[in-house]
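Good morning C.,

I know you're traveling, so I'll keep this short. The sequence:
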Amino acid sequence: MPLTSLPNLLTLSRILAVPLVVASFYVPGDYARWFACALFSAAGFTDWLDGHMARRWEQQSELGRFLDPIADKLLVAATLFMLVAKDRFNTEWTLLPALVILCREILVSGLREYLAALRVGLPVSRLAKWKTAIQMVAIGVLIVGSAGPAFLPVVAIGETLLWVAALLTLVTGYDYLRAGLAHMTRTPPAAHGKSQHLA
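The tokens, ready to paste straight into the viewer:
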């Protein structure tokens, strides 16, 4: 499938949105926060849209499978880093769910790379999809932060959702790790045969 297919272009647009979202953190004013939130939300929506279109139009490709998770992790990691750098949290404890989310992304990426070498897929679970949805909403709310409606505790809402996403992250991360360990600890047939011969 060519790079110029619509699903791949949507994935690339998500990658290109990352520096724009990051740059918006350096622009003062409430409008910049709302712009960053809108851009982040649009980029997050393409995560669902490109996969949906690729499946419906039968335009799934190895390039898309490679770029899609990279685009997601770049967008989430970069935005979380900027939220921390610009002190957009009410308490320093909110660093913990952000750290959990980032560590889980690294863990799952490593597992996928290892299992890919074994030609074993690691499908996304329904719970992981919920985790991603809640995580994206939480980050979007935190981007707006104090620029949100005065009658709502916007930052507190975002932090609560981020904690929920982090808890789901631990659950889904454990599920993925358990699935990966099942393949890591399995004795290869050749090695198994050799051990029987030596015994």
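Safe travels,
E.
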